[in-house]
Amino acid sequence: MNASLELKDVQTGYGLIQAVRGASFAVRRGSVTALLGNNGAGKSTLLKTVMGLIPGQPQKGEILLDGERINGMDTESIVRLGVSYVPENRAVFHQLSVQDNLIMGAHVRKDRRALKTDLERIYEFFPILADRVNQPAGTLSGGEQQMLAISRAMMSRPRLLLLDEPSLGLSPFLVRKIFHIIRIIRNQGVTILLVEQNVRKALAIADYALVMESGRLVSAGPSTDLKNDPRIKDFYLGLNIRETQEPSC
Amino acid sequence: MLNGVAAGSGYALMGIAMVIIYKTSEVVNFAQGEMALASVFFTYLILQNYGIPFVYAMPLAALFAVFVGCVLEFAVLRRARRQTTLGMIIVTIGLEMILMGLVSWKFGADHKVMPFPITEFDSIWLGGFYVTTLEAVTFSVVWAVMLGLFVFYRYTRLGLIMKATQQNRSAAKLMGVRTNRVLMFTWGLSSLVGCIAGLLLAPRSMEPFMMWDPMLKGFAGAVVGGMTSIPGAVFGAYFIGVVENLFGRYASMEFKSAVAFALIVIVLCVKPSGIFSRHYVKKV
Ligand SMILES: Nc1ncnc2c1ncn2[C@@H]1O[C@H](COP(=O)(O)OP(=O)(O)OP(=O)(O)O)[C@@H](O)[C@H]1O
Ligand SMILES: [Mg+2]
């Protein structure tokens, strides 16, 4: 078995609304897997379900981390097993400084001596964060907060990283930078499940891709296959056209 | 004036205790006074009935206070966490009555004399005027507690974890923080601060109702200070202590206590979020 994360017929709902209607897939260890789909398809709900963030969910199905069942566990315990999650809203601690946010990211780490070198590496990589070490995170710009959130998630040295639309609302320069970082994180051996609206960039970086449509998984496979899948082409091209038109408007 | 400062010190500690809990769990803890009361009577019990020396009784009392706070959070508040704010207030008032009932039942409603090395009547000469030793001790302890809490929140790892949990509980969970334990510890810490207040008030008067008034005044002080700021609560508590004493001396003794609440009303009308509050965006 070389699946890092595996879902078997997972169903999640909010009250009467069924948001994920039976998702089964595996995320291969060491891979980047992109999770694509329209607004409201249930991508974020799926990630939240994996993290145990929706009380009483999943209603049905099984979630396995490296073969071990994790559904029903509380969020803290799942994080302690080596899963990091960057939510859509970034969830930085607004009144804590940038540095304290990063230190909180390392909360579950045993080897706290290596903390300093990790911090230095992050500041080297994101000089903007280094300039704002003591600034409250709430005063950072959206893009800066996103960098902080990803850096903070990396401070725990996870084996699996779940990213929910990391490029949301970022300038093209920052989007490139974020995808560059995702590549670096992958090269460190971290498995990544990436939810993205930027389909072209996501497929370029991903080894595998999953497509969701109103709560169901409609397509899965190597990202190169997916690019040529006629069912996906529609969706993919749709975004592609918009992207190429953007500069002219 | 000096009397007001002395009274304010007791209120300040109660205010701090309530702020610690409110900041983390947004619960206004009306059982705060009676949690302290339980610790005070526990101290009385081990000093008076078991003859444990004062130096050992103090750490034991502290442990007991932390224990009471943790147990209440674990056994009651955690179960009630899905309640509305109003429901939570009723829960803490219920706890308050239960604790008060238990103490009255076990120890009776009569006045006790706390066997402390310091009594209300000792005094020290403080370059120009006399203050009672108790007032001097109370005042120093309040400042020591404030300083201690400042250092704790600013420089310790646990302090950082508590601040993070206060600000965004679900984000703290995403960092792997066992937020339930943090919350339990918060109640323990708050109970400890309340216990210190109770022990400082006990030499003046010790009976089952002794903590009700200081708790309300401390609460009033905390509200004046914005309810989430420890220095704010201390300022508010001293302010109330001084104003009510001046009022009691120069205007009317009967309405002395009512002044505290008149003040809250005025402050809340003028600045609803309290004097020391930062603009606080409620997280969902
Ligand atoms: N807290 C909630 N309560 C009720 N319904 C919800 C809740 N959160 C999401 N939903 C519903 O679940 C469905 C899936 O939402 P989800 O956020 O998972 O979509 P998504 O694929 O992440 O979309 P987007 O790309 O816009 O972020 C939507 O129909 C949404 O309305
Ligand atoms: Mg989403």
Automatic annotation (TrEMBL), chain A:
Keywords, alphabetical: Amino-acid transport, ATP-binding, Nucleotide-binding, Transport
Similarity field: Belongs to the ABC transporter superfamily.
DNA-binding among keywords: no
Classification via InterPro entries: AAA+_ATPase, ABC_transporter-like_ATP-bd, ABC_transporter-like_CS, BCAA_Transport_ATP-bd_LivF, P-loop_NTPase
Protein's name in the database: Amino acid/amide ABC transporter ATP-binding protein 2, HAAT family
Molecular function as annotated in GO: ATP binding; ATP hydrolysis activity; branched-chain amino acid transmembrane transporter activity
Protein's UniProt keywords contain Transport: yes
Database matches in PROSITE patterns: ABC_TRANSPORTER_1 (PS00211), ABC_TRANSPORTER_2 (PS50893)
Endpoints of the signal sequence: none
GO biological process, one term: L-amino acid transport
Domain called ABC transporter: residue spans: 5-239
Record-linked Gene3D superfamilies: P-loop containing nucleotide triphosphate hydrolases
Automatic annotation (TrEMBL), chain B:
Record flagged with keyword Cell membrane: yes
Compartments where found: Cell membrane
CDD domains: TM_PBP1_LivH_like
GO terms for MF: transmembrane transporter activity
A Gene Ontology term for the protein's cellular component: plasma membrane
Keywords noted in UniProt: Amino-acid transport, Cell membrane, Membrane, Transmembrane, Transmembrane helix, Transport
Family, per entry: Belongs to the binding-protein-dependent transport system permease family. LivHM subfamily.
The protein's name in its UniProt record: Amino acid/amide ABC transporter membrane protein 1, HAAT family
Organism: Desulfatibacillum alkenivorans DSM 16219
